[in-house]
Amino acid sequence: MPAPRVPVELREFPEPALEPGSVLLKTLFSEICGTDVHLWHGRLAGVPYPIIPGHVSVGVADKVRGPVRGVDGRPIADGDRLVFFDVHRTCGRCRACTVTRTPTRCEARRVYGITDPASEGLLGGWAEAIYLEPGVSIATLPASVPADTYISGGCGLITAVHIIDRAAITLGDAVLVQGVGAVGLSAIALARLGGAARVIAFGAPADRLALAREMGADRVVDITATSGEERRDIVFQETGGYGVDVAIEAAGSARAVEEALPLIRDGGRYVIAGHYTDAGPSSINFHQHVNRKHLEIRGCWGSEVGHFVRALRLLERHHATIPWHAIGARSYGLGDLNQALADAEAMRIPKALVRPTSGFSRT
Ligand SMILES: [Zn+2]
Ligand SMILES: [Zn+2]
Questions:
Q1: E strand or H helix at 57, and its extent?
Q2: Which ligand is nearest to the CA of 96?
Q3: How many angstroms is it from 56 CA to the middle of ligand 2?
Q4: In this structure, are strands 328-332 and 264-272 parallel, antiparallel, or unpaired?
Q5: N or C end of the chain: smaller count of CB under 10 Å?
Q6: Which ligand places an atom closest to the C-alpha of 92?
Q7: Which of 315, 86, 327 is nearest to 190 (CA)?
Q8: In the chain, pLDDT over 90 holds for what percent of residues?
Q9: Ligand 1 mean position to 104 CA, how many Å?
């Protein structure tokens, strides 16, 4: 991606010299998530274009300059199916890492495919190979999980694990999820696994709402076919007139925040996860909707290695019954990425997968 708002182009890079403790990965799949569309629109600050996009990816270890160990301590070998945590170089020493214990706010932190410049090499998944530098958190993909299922969950699933931690859902809760993109869809499934007794999803278009139902939503509401008042009535009707215990914002809309606050019960909780780019201010009456209601509002920024590892465990246990595979609706080769971006931008499919190489069997 040379710069925002210009077509992505194919470039050749030399094969990197492997530092001790690094791995060269042959890419099986990467993905186009909402962030990549934001990158293409130039809506993220501090991105060092040109970049090789693709943050969450899966591949096969092609060369290992060992010894390299996975996050579980086991050695990594040639031919292993590997996944890795896209956030790297979190320093472990700064104020965010040590004093406030908010490592997703570490300033040294870099992210494959987002804040790594192409001038530094193969640090993005829209490529035939990915260089996993020393220190990157690597895991073997559980044998039962297909590579395309992993990537269909992708960064939305990892983000949703963090969201559910922040949401602190308790057994029997009624939960509202705003947004049925990759993050919202996984949040629906995980809210259900986390004990929610009622999950209501707001979003569009219709095919994603159908998928939201399959992911575990009891009630889906098309925001393009209902008024705010109608949605309010639905939520109160579904919750005995009290409002939901927890709401999760995965829509990236300032209006969505304004809409949700009156729909949460007294003493409830609201997690804001969709404002990854600046969607502008929301107008909130803090007396009515926060102070008097004793409401808790929590932000959720990025994810940590633990969320990635737990996402793998959840996939291993639940991929046969929760249809993550259906989110990654279509695969695109490297020559079709401009079309893939256009399809993602127009929300024609829930998620576009990137499949750079064809010489590997789908295992
Ligand atoms: Zn740090
Ligand atoms: Zn992403």
A1: strand 57-65
A2: 1
A3: 7
A4: unpaired
A5: C
A6: 1
A7: 315
A8: 95
A9: 8
pLDDT band at 358 (very low <50, low <70, confident <90, very high): low
Structure tokens at 70: 């996975």
Long-range contacts of residues 259-264, Cβ cutoff 8 Å, at least 24 apart: 259/178, 259/228, 259/231, 259/232, 260/176, 260/178, 261/289, 261/290, 261/295, 262/232, 262/288, 262/289, 263/176, 263/231, 263/232, 263/235, 263/236, 264/176, 264/293, 264/295
For residues 164 and 104, the answer to whether their CB atoms sit within 8 Å is no
Distance 166 CA to ligand 1 centre (A): 21
- pLDDT tens sequence across 264-282: 999 999 999 999 999 999 9
- 89 C-alpha to ligand 1 centroid (Å): 8
Q: How far is CA 44 from the centre of its chain?
A: 16
* Residues 45-89 pLDDT 10s: 999 999 999 999 999 999 999 899 999 999 999 999 999 999 999
Q: Which residues neighbour ligand 1 (ion) by CB within 5 Å?
A: 91, 94, 97, 106
Q: What residue type is 302 in one-letter code? A: G
pLDDT of 189 over the 50 cut:
yes
- Nearest residue to 353 via CA among 136, 190, 185, 152: 152
Find the ligand nearest to 157 CA. Answer: 2
Q: Which ligand is nearest to the CA of 105?
A: 1
